[in-house]
Design a protein that fits this description.
heterodimer; A: alpha+beta; Dna Ligase, domain 1; 4 domains; four-stranded antiparallel β-sheet; about 25% helix; about 30% strand; B: alpha/beta; Rossmann fold; two-stranded antiparallel ribbon; 11 strands
Chain lengths: ~475, ~250
């Protein structure tokens, strides 16, 4: 199959793209190169445009048109495209069709093939980068097109204009292999952004960060990876006296940083944006910011998503991970808790509420026989008043059942639990779970006293049957 | 003649056939009957309560409000059976007043791994007026996030200070994403307007029953309150066995 080259060029956008538009990338040409690298390894940046060789990949991606569609849709911006049998010809046709000095026209989103019909010999010399330095001389010789230069004697041409022009022409006509510094997909995403204006408030950094995230998405898609940890850095204006500020986000070096973590590798831009917005809401900028930098710290290969075969099972809404991370970002990671149970006798240790982010994946959930336990447990047992040897909690309590004796924790030494639990009834609060602490009884009955309720025993409210 | 026929036709129409009403939209119900619930319901586990609720259970995708005296919390008794059977997804608790005791809930069929607890951070000491209003919006925000999450089955929120328009917002979120939503409030809000489709007032009776008053439902108002057994069967057995000793445990000492 003969080689087939594409040349692509992005037109600079005059009007600043509205913030939040999907095309607001920080570096569209690099993003386009990353996309092209998914289709072919032969991608190079040449003379302000991208050239790529696609003949070997056409069949895999379903033909030339399908491949072009994959490459250019959704559009990264107005661009023009040309093709040819060699890279230099494609590039020459691209520059002929819309020269770099011509007034740039903004096109509608999309692309068009340009100058495909131009024969190689008729291409103007201005479209060949190696000939641009010698244009006036060549013109005085009467040479305006590639064909005319090529008709000159090779030895004289090399002596007069150097070997570069000859090599370039040979490459353009396919007589020499085209070897360029091929672009590689970076292992780590690391992109800077110079902000258009000084940013004073942290939440306004989000607009710049959003463009960096859009760029990140192109990189993640190209590498088929999801991000786990991201780092956003910003440089404080060094002319301000408090640029060397020290707090949770600033380390007195004139830079600030923020780490963004997700539990599941993700390519979801909206989720990252929301997390970043929550985090930035807590940052206080001591000085204005001019530069941003976004870097991936940990990424993970992303496996495909499996969808349900049945339409009915699809529920609307976002995923559990995303929701919990967002809530944890606002409330604090220690405030989103999940439960685990443990084989223990002391009620306060039977269950363990731990932060969801730090949960133990391998925890075994035991079905405890807890039918006789209350459904609410007080975090710290509430000391009850005792009047006439009867515990009171908003009125006198009537003991209905008990005692259930508990002796545990003596191995751990410091504070063994010696308790008698009772089910008690309160006039207005329903059934309560109270205990009498046998340790705090009279000295003579310490630890060995009779069933709870001895004079001076301390009563506690520990649970509510709801 | 024509006028007579027209009148006859009109009078026929003005006394519609009873059967004709059955074809109406499910949101329209006759004042003396319970509404046919247009949405799914989950049985409460209490035959008596199911009988008096439209659709025979807790409405899915609508706000249900439970009012209780301040400091009293009897909601698990009513909700645990329904939560146990509503699915296998997470049940989110927003700002519960005490620690939910997992072994007891497991015993009622609510698996431990389904429970998620959103604990609210303690308000800062030097809270300004603006910060205070932000703090009161946080539980509402967290509740709404939970409602908008796909795998979540039910959301229980203790929102003593929620306002009507905030509750309406939660109600709409629940309706959009088809979630069970229970909001626990203080009974001081009894006189306030509420967007809830179902409002209940709970009070514990002295004699081992839970008194449920249906304040609002889609159907005729219920004059008398319902008395439900306030305990699980195991606890009931324990108490029966204890009282069978004739003397209260207190007197034993």
């Amino acid at each position: 199959m003969p080689p087939h080259w594409l040349a692509l060029r992005l037109h600079p956008v005059q009007a600043p793209v509205a913030d939040g538009a999907p095309s607001a990338l920080t570096d569209p040409l690099t993003a386009l190169a990353w996309r092209a690298l998914q289709l072919t390894p032969w991608v190079a940046e040449l003379d302000g445009a991208l050239v790529l060789e696609i003949s070997a990949s056409e069949r895999l991606f379903g033909g030339r048109n399908a491949l072009l569609h994959t490459l250019l849709m959704p559009a990264l911006g107005p661009l023009s495209c040309a093709q040819g049998p060699t890279g230099l010809v494609a590039l020459g046709r691209l520059w002929t069709a819309n020269p770099p000095t011509a007034a740039q026209h903004t096109m509608a989103e999309g692309f068009c093939m340009q100058g495909d019909a131009l024969p190689v010999d008729a291409l103007p010399l201005a479209a060949l980068a190696a000939a641009r330095a010698h244009l006036p001389t060549l013109e005085r010789l009467g040479c305006r097109t590639w064909g005319q230069v090529r008709a000159l004697p090779r030895a004289g041409l090399a002596r007069r204009f150097g070997a570069d022009l000859l090599t370039a022409l040979d490459r353009a006509y396919g007589l020499q292999p085209e070897v360029y510094p091929w672009l590689r997909l970076p292992e780590v995403f690391d992109a800077p952004l110079e902000l258009a204006a000084q940013v004073e408030s942290a939440s306004a950094l989000l607009f710049g960060a959003r463009r960096l995230l859009a760029q990140l998405l192109e990189w993640l898609r190209a590498r088929q990876r999801g991000v786990l940890v991201l780092e956003l850095r910003w440089e404080l204006d060094a002319r301000r006296s408090n640029a060397l500020h020290l707090d949770a986000h600033h380390d007195a070096s004139g830079y600030g940083r923020l780490e963004l973590r997700t539990a599941q590798a993700t390519q979801d831009l909206r989720h990252l944006e929301r997390l970043l917005a929550e985090q930035l809401a807590r940052v206080v900028l001591p000085a204005p910011v001019l530069y941003l930098r976004l870097r991936t710290l940990v990424t993970q290969p992303l496996s495909g998503e499996s969808h349900s075969l049945l339409v009915d099972e699809v529920r609307s809404g976002d995923s559990l991970h995303h929701m919990l991370e967002r809530v944890a970002a606002r409330l604090g990671p220690a405030q989103v808790l999940c439960a685990s149970t443990e084989a223990e006798h002391r009620p306060e240790r039977m269950q363990h509420w731990q932060p969801w982010s730090a949960r133990d994946q391998a925890v075994q959930y035991r079905e405890e026989k807890g039918a006789l336990y209350p459904t609410w447990l007080l975090a710290t047992p509430q000391s009850l008043q005792v009047q006439q040897a009867q515990p009171h909690f908003h009125g006198p309590l009537v003991l209905l059942a008990g005692p259930q004796r508990l002796e545990a924790g003596w191995l751990e030494g410091e504070n063994p639990a010696l308790r008698d639990y009772f089910v008690a009834r309160s006039q207005c609060h329903g059934l309560l779970w109270i205990y009498c602490d046998r340790l705090e009884g009279k000295d003579g009955q310490r630890g060995t006293g009779g069933v709870g309720g001895t004079d001076g025993a301390q009563w506690y409210l520990h649970g509510v049957f709801a | 003649m024509v006028a007579q026929q027209a009148f006859a036709a009109f009078s026929d129409a003005s006394v519609p056939d009873v059967d004709a009403l059955d074809g109406l939209h499910a949101d329209v119900w006759r004042a003396h009957a319970l509404a046919l619930a247009p949405q799914r319901t989950v049985a409460t586990g209490d035959a008596l309560l199911d009988q008096h609720l439209p659709g025979g259970g807790w409405p899915v995708g609508a706000l249900t409000e439970l009012l209780q005296a301040p400091g009293v919390h009897n909601e698990w008794r009513l909700l645990a059976p329904a939560l146990a059977r509503c699915g296998t997804g997470p049940v989110v608790l927003v700002a519960p007043p005490h620690l939910p005791f997992v072994p007891a809930l497991c015993a009622q069929g609510l698996a431990a791994q389904r429970l998620l607890w959103f604990k609210l951070p303690l308000p800062a000491r030097s809270a300004k007026a603006g910060a205070a209003s932000g703090a009161s919006a946080t539980p509402l925000w967290a509740t709404e996030q939970a409602l908008r999450c796909a795998p979540v089955d039910a959301v229980l929120a203790w929102l003593p200070q929620a306002r009507t328009e905030q509750l309406r917002r939660l109600h709409l979120a629940a309706a959009e994403h088809h979630k069970l939503l229970f909001v626990m409030r203080s009974d001081q809000a009894r006189q306030d307007a509420s967007p809830a489709v179902l409002r209940l007032q709970l009070s514990a009776d002295a004699d081992a029953t839970l008194c449920v008053e249906l304040l609002k439902r889609r159907g005729p108002p219920l004059a008398q309150s319902l008395h439900l057994a306030a305990r699980t069967s195991a606890l009931r057995q324990l108490l029966a066995a204890s009282s069978a000793l004739q003397q209260p445990a207190w007197a034993l000492r």
